Amino acid sequence: MAAILEKRKLRDFDWLLTLLALAIALFGTWMIYNAQPDVGYWKKQLIGLGISAVVMLAVSFTDYRKLVHFAPAFYVFGLVLLVVVLVPGIGLKINGQRCWIGVPGLGQFQPSEFMKIPTVLMLARYYGRPRGSTLTVRETLMGIAILALPVGLILLEPDAGQSITYFPLLAVVLFLSSVRMWLVIAALVLGTASVPAAWVAGVKTGAIKPYQQERINVILDPENADRRGFGYHTWQSILTVGKGGLWGSETRGDASQSKLKFLPEPHTDFIFAVTAENTGFAGCVLLLLAYAVLLTKLIHGARRAPDRTGMLVIMAIVGGLAFQIFINVGMALGMLPVIGVPLPLMSAGLSAILSTSVAIGFAISIRLRRFVN
Amino acid sequence: MKFEDETQNLKGRMAIINALVIALLVVLGARLYFLQVVRGDYYAERAENQRIRRLRIPAPRGAIFDRNGKLLVDSRSTYNVLLAGEDMKGKDWNVLIEPLSDGLGLDPGLLRERFDEAKRQPAFEEVTVKEGATPADIAWVEAHSLELPMLLVREQPQRRYPSNGTLAHVLGYVGEISPEQLKQPRFKDPDVNPFVRDNPYRPGDIIGQEGLESTYDRYLRGRDGYREVEVDSRGRIQRDLSLVPPQPGQDLVTTIDLDLQLTAEEQLRNSPNKRGVIVAMDPQSGEILALASYPTFDPNLFSQRIGTPEGRREANALLRDPLTPLFNRAIRGRYPPGSTWKILMATAGLQQGAITIKNSNLVCGGGITIGNKFTRCMGSHGSPPLRLAIKKSCDAYFYRLGLKMGIGGIMQMVDEFDLNKRTGVDLPHELVSWTPSPEFKARFNPRDKEWRDIDTVYASFGQVYDFVTPLSMLRAQVAVANGGRLYVPHLLKEARAVAGAGPFPERPRQTFDHPDPKRLDIPVDQHDLVVDGMWAVVNEDGTGTAARIAGFDVAGKTGTAQVVGLGKDTGKNKDHSWFVSYAPAKKPEIAMIALIENVGFGGKFAAPAVHNIYQTYLSKAHPDLAPAAPPTVEAAAQHQ
Question: Which letter, b or e, does each residue of B271-305 get, where b requires 16 or more Cβ atoms within 10 Å of its Cβ?
Answer without folding.
Answer: bebebbbbbbbbbbbbbbbbbbbbbbbbbbbbbbb
